[in-house]
C-alpha cells in the first residue's frame, strides 16, 4: 500500500499540466497534514513535476526528459530574472524554443519573433501586442509595466507577460547562463539514468528463508539481494557473506545486514561509485525518502556508465573542463605537463586559486597513473605540503612521480615549478578501480 507521501506524488503527477496547486488544497483533498503536503510538493519539485514561483504559486509543469533539459519553461524564466507575472499565468508551464532581443525596428523585430519564442524588450507596447499575436511570450525589462490590452491578450492566448527590473543585456546574460548550466546538468549522470528498475530487480522478503536466497542465487548468479517488508520498504540487504554458516530454514531477517547504505534517484553516479569503493560493496539499493525500494545499481553499472560518459563530447564546460584545456604534455615520452593560469582560475589577489591548484595536481597525478596501468582511479586523500602564489598568465610545469603502486592503490608525489623554482608540492593517494 502506498504511503501518504507517495499518494500525493501520484496525485500531482495525474494533474493536468498548467494546473495550480497549493499545500492547503492538497492537505484538504487528500486529508493529510499540511506538513506532509509541503514535503511532497518539495519532492515533486526535485522530480521536475512542479515549479514554484514567488507571488504566483506552484504550477504543474511537464516533466522534461534529459535530452530536452536545456529547454526552459516560462516559469523557470520568472525565477531566473526575479520577475513578476503581469498576465498569461495559465501559460507559465510552456517551454520556450528561443529568445529574441527586441533592439530593432518593430517590423524587423516581428520578422524574428515566432510562436514559442520569448521577446525581451522594454516599454514598447505595440511590440508586446504583436509578439503575443505571433504566439510569443514577452519579458519586459527595466521594471516597466504592460498595458491593460496586452494583459488581456496574454490571458486570452495563455502566453506569459513578465516584468523584471533588470536591463535587456543583463537578462539575456542570465538566461544564457541558465541554459548553459542546464547543458552541464544534462551531462552529469544521475542514478535515475542507470537504475535497474524495481520490476527488473531480484529481491527477497524479510520472511523468506535462506533456502530462497540459494534459489535466487542459482537462478540469477547474483551474490546479493535487497530485502523488503510486505509494504515494499527496504529493510536490509543479504549477500553470500551473510548466509555462510546458516541453515536453509533460517529466516532472512535474522541474518541480513540491516539499515543498508542507500542512495536516491538524484545522487550522481560518481558519488555513488565512490561510496561503493570506500565501503567495499558491489550492490547499492536505491530508495526514496520514505525508504521504499526503487531499484538497485551494481558496481559494474557505475563503472560502465562513467567510462561511457568520458567518451561523450562535451556540450557545456565546467571549471574542471576549462582547467583541463589549459594543460599540455611537454613531450610524448615525459609525464610532465605545462599549465597556463588564466583569469577564471585566479583568486581576488590575482594568483591561482586553491581550487584550481588542487585540480591541476589531481589531473596530473591521474594522467601519470593512466600511463602506468591504464586503470581508472578515484582520489582518496591529498596533502598539499608546500604552496607559493602563482600569478596570472604564468605557465607552470607539473611533474608527477609515482612513489608506490599496488593492485588496489597508488601514491603520487606532484611537484609544481615556475622559472625553475618550486612553487608547490603535494602527495596524493588514489584507489585504483578494476574495469
Automatic annotation (TrEMBL):
<keyword id="KW-0129">CBS domain</keyword>
<dbReference type="InterPro" id="IPR000644">
    <property type="entry name" value="CBS_dom"/>
</dbReference>
<dbReference type="InterPro" id="IPR036388">
    <property type="entry name" value="WH-like_DNA-bd_sf"/>
</dbReference>
<dbReference type="InterPro" id="IPR006683">
    <property type="entry name" value="Thioestr_dom"/>
</dbReference>
<dbReference type="Pfam" id="PF03061">
    <property type="entry name" value="4HBT"/>
</dbReference>
<protein>
    <submittedName>
        <fullName>Putative transcriptional regulator</fullName>
    </submittedName>
</protein>
<dbReference type="InterPro" id="IPR046342">
    <property type="entry name" value="CBS_dom_sf"/>
</dbReference>
<dbReference type="Pfam" id="PF07085">
    <property type="entry name" value="DRTGG"/>
</dbReference>
<feature type="domain" description="CBS">
    <location>
        <begin position="195"/>
        <end position="253"/>
    </location>
</feature>
<dbReference type="InterPro" id="IPR051257">
    <property type="entry name" value="Diverse_CBS-Domain"/>
</dbReference>
<dbReference type="InterPro" id="IPR036390">
    <property type="entry name" value="WH_DNA-bd_sf"/>
</dbReference>
<dbReference type="InterPro" id="IPR029069">
    <property type="entry name" value="HotDog_dom_sf"/>
</dbReference>
<dbReference type="InterPro" id="IPR028979">
    <property type="entry name" value="Ser_kin/Pase_Hpr-like_N_sf"/>
</dbReference>
<dbReference type="InterPro" id="IPR010766">
    <property type="entry name" value="DRTGG"/>
</dbReference>
<feature type="domain" description="CBS">
    <location>
        <begin position="256"/>
        <end position="314"/>
    </location>
</feature>
<dbReference type="Pfam" id="PF00571">
    <property type="entry name" value="CBS"/>
</dbReference>
Amino acid at each position: 500500500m502506498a504511503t501518504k507521501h507517495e499518494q500525493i506524488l501520484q496525485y500531482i503527477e495525474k494533474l493536468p499540466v498548467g494546473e495550480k496547486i497549493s499545500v492547503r488544497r492538497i492537505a484538504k483533498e487528500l486529508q493529510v497534514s499540511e506538513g506532509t503536503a509541503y514535503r511532497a510538493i518539495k519532492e515533486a519539485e526535485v522530480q521536475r513535476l512542479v515549479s514554484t514561483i514567488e507571488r504566483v504559486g506552484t504550477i504543474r509543469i511537464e516533466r522534461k526528459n534529459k535530452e530536452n533539459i536545456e529547454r526552459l519553461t516560462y516559469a523557470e524564466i520568472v525565477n531566473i530574472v526575479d520577475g513578476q507575472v503581469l498576465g498569461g499565468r495559465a501559460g507559465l508551464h510552456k517551454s520556450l524554443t528561443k529568445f529574441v532581443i527586441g533592439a530593432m525596428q518593430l517590423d524587423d523585430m516581428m520578422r524574428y519573433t515566432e510562436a514559442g519564442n520569448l521577446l525581451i524588450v522594454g516599454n514598447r507596447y505595440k511590440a508586446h501586442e504583436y509578439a503575443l499575436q505571433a504566439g510569443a511570450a514577452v519579458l519586459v525589462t527595466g521594471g516597466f509595466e504592460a498595458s491593460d490590452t496586452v494583459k488581456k491578450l496574454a490571458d486570452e492566448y495563455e502566453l506569459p507577460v513578465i516584468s523584471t527590473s533588470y536591463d535587456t543585456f543583463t537578462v539575456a546574460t542570465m538566461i544564457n547562463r541558465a541554459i548553459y548550466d542546464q547543458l552541464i546538468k544534462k551531462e552529469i549522470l544521475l542514478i535515475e539514468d542507470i537504475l535497474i528498475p524495481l520490476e527488473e530487480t531480484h529481491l527477497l522478503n524479510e520472511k523468506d528463508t535462506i533456502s530462497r536466497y540459494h534459489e535466487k542465487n542459482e537462478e540469477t548468479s547474483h551474490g546479493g539481494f535487497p530485502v523488503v517488508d510486505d509494504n515494499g520498504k527496504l529493510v536490509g540487504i543479504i549477500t553470500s557473506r551473510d548466509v555462510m554458516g546458516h541453515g536453509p530454514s533460517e529466516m532472512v531477517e535474522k541474518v541480513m545486514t540491516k539499515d543498508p547504505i542507500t542512495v536516491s534517484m538524484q545522487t550522481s553516479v560518481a558519488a555513488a561509485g565512490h561510496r561503493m569503493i570506500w565501503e567495499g560493496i558491489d550492490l547499492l539499493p536505491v530508495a526514496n525518502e520514505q525508504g521504499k525500494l526503487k531499484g538497485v545499481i551494481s558496481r559494474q553499472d557505475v563503472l560502465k556508465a562513467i567510462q561511457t560518459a568520458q567518451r561523450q563530447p562535451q556540450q557545456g564546460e565546467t571549471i574542471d573542463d576549462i582547467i583541463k584545456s589549459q594543460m599540455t604534455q611537454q613531450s610524448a615520452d615525459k609525464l610532465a605537463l605545462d599549465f597556463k593560469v588564466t583569469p577564471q582560475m585566479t583568486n581576488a589577489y590575482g594568483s591561482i586559486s586553491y581550487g584550481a591548484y588542487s585540480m591541476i595536481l589531481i589531473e596530473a597525478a591521474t594522467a601519470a597513473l593512466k600511463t602506468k596501468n591504464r586503470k581508472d582511479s578515484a582520489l582518496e586523500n591529498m596533502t598539499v605540503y608546500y604552496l607559493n602564489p602563482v600569478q596570472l598568465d604564468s605557465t607552470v610545469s607539473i611533474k608527477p612521480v609515482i612513489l608506490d603502486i599496488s593492485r588496489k592503490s597508488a601514491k603520487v608525489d606532484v611537484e609544481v615549478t615556475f622559472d625553475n623554482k618550486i612553487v608547490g608540492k603535494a602527495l596524493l593517494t588514489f584507489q585504483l578501480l578494476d574495469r
